[in-house]
C-alpha cells in the first residue's frame, strides 16, 4: 500500500474530530511529502536534530508534534519549530521548556506524558505528579498544558492495553472534575494509540493518535 493510499484509508476510518499525527521519524523528506500531497499536515518527530532539519526544509504549513524524549540541552533544536511537544515527561523538562519560552516570548503547547505502561523503560510522570503539576499550572506562563499523552504496554493482550489507556482517561477526567478552577483553558486533550493499538484508543476516546508504521512502513 502506498503512503497516500494509507493516509486516505486512515482518514476514512478516523472520526473527523480526531487528529492524526503521522509519525515520520526516521523516514526521509520524500516520504513526508508523499503524505503531504495526500492531504496530511500533522507530523511527529522524536529526534531533535532530524526534527530541525525537516522543519527547516519542508512546507511551512506542516504542523509539527515532537513526540520523543527531549533533553533540556536540545530545546533550541525543537522549540522554535514545534507546534506541540507531546512528550513532557518530567518536572525538570517542564521547567526548562517554560523558562526557554518565557525568554523567547513564546507560549508552547504541550501535553504531560503519563507513565501508564508496565515497562519501566518508558518515560513519564506518575498520576500524583501530574495532579501536582496541574494544581500549579498557572505558574508556568511559557507553556499551555492542553492535556495528557501516554503509551500502553507493548503487548497483544487487549485487556492490558485497555487497562493502561483507562488510567490516562481516568486521570484526565479526575483532573477536570476536581481541579476545574485551576486547569489551563482548553485542557483535556488525550494523545494515545499507535499503529498496533489505535483502534482500541479510538474506542476509548483518544483525541490524537500517533501512527507511523501503518503509513510509512517499517523504518529502514
> How can the largest sheet be summarized?
8 strands, parallel
Name given to the CATH homologous superfamily = Alanine racemase
Inertia-based shape: globular
Distance between the termini: 17 Å
CATH C-level category: Alpha Beta
In the CATH hierarchy, what is the architecture at level 2? Alpha-Beta Barrel
Summarize the helix and strand pattern as letters: HEHEHEHEHEHEHEHEH
Helix content: 40-55%
What is the CATH topology descriptor?
A: TIM Barrel
Description:
With 220 residues, this protein is of the alpha/beta class. It has one domain (3-216): Alanine racemase (TIM Barrel). It is 40% helix and 18% strand. It contains nine helices and eight strands. It has helices at 3-13, 29-37, 48-57, 75-78, 91-104, 127-135, 158-178, 198-203, 213-216, and strands at residues 19-23, 42-45, 63-66, 84-88, 108-114, 143-150, 189-191, 208-211. An eight-stranded parallel β-sheet has the order 7-6-5-4-3-2-1-8. The mean pLDDT is 95.
Topology (elements, then pairings):
Elements: H1 3-13, E1 19-23, H2 29-37, E2 42-45, H3 48-57, E3 63-66, H4 75-78, E4 84-88, H5 91-104, E5 108-114, H6 127-135, E6 143-150, H7 158-178, E7 189-191, H8 198-203, E8 208-211, H9 213-216
Parallel strand pairs: 1-2, 1-8, 2-3, 3-4, 4-5, 5-6, 6-7
Amino acid at each position: 500500500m502506498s503512503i497516500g493510499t494509507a493516509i486516505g484509508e486512515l482518514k476514512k476510518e478516523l472520526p473527523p474530530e480526531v487528529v492524526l499525527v503521522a509519525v515520520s521519524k526516521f523516514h526521509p523528506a520524500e516520504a513526508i511529502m508523499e503524505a503531504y500531497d495526500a492531504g496530511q499536515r500533522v507530523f511527529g518527530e522524536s529526534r531533535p536534530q532530524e526534527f530541525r532539519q525537516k522543519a527547516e526544509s519542508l512546507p511551512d504549513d506542516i504542523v509539527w508534534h515532537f513526540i520523543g524524549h527531549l533533553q533540556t540541552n536540545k530545546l533550541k533544536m525543537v522549540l522554535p519549530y514545534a507546534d506541540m511537544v507531546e512528550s513532557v515527561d518530567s518536572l525538570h523538562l517542564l521547567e526548562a521548556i517554560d523558562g526557554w519560552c518565557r525568554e523567547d516570548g513564546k507560549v508552547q503547547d504541550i501535553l504531560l506524558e503519563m507513565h501508564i505502561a508496565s515497562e519501566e523503560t518508558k518515560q513519564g510522570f506518575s498520576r500524583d505528579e501530574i495532579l501536582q503539576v496541574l494544581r500549579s499550572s498557572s505558574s508556568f506562563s511559557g507553556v499551555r498544558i492542553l492535556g495528557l499523552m501516554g503509551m500502553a504496554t507493548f503487548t497483544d493482550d487487549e485487556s492490558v492495553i485497555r487497562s493502561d489507556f483507562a488510567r490516562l482517561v481516568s486521570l484526565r477526567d479526575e483532573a477536570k472534575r476536581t481541579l476545574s478552577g485551576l486547569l489551563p483553558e482548553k485542557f483535556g486533550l488525550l494523545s494515545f494509540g499507535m499503529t498496533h493499538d489505535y483502534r482500541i484508543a479510538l474506542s476509548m476516546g483518544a483525541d490524537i493518535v500517533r501512527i507511523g508504521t501503518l503509513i510509512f512502513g517499517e523504518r529502514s
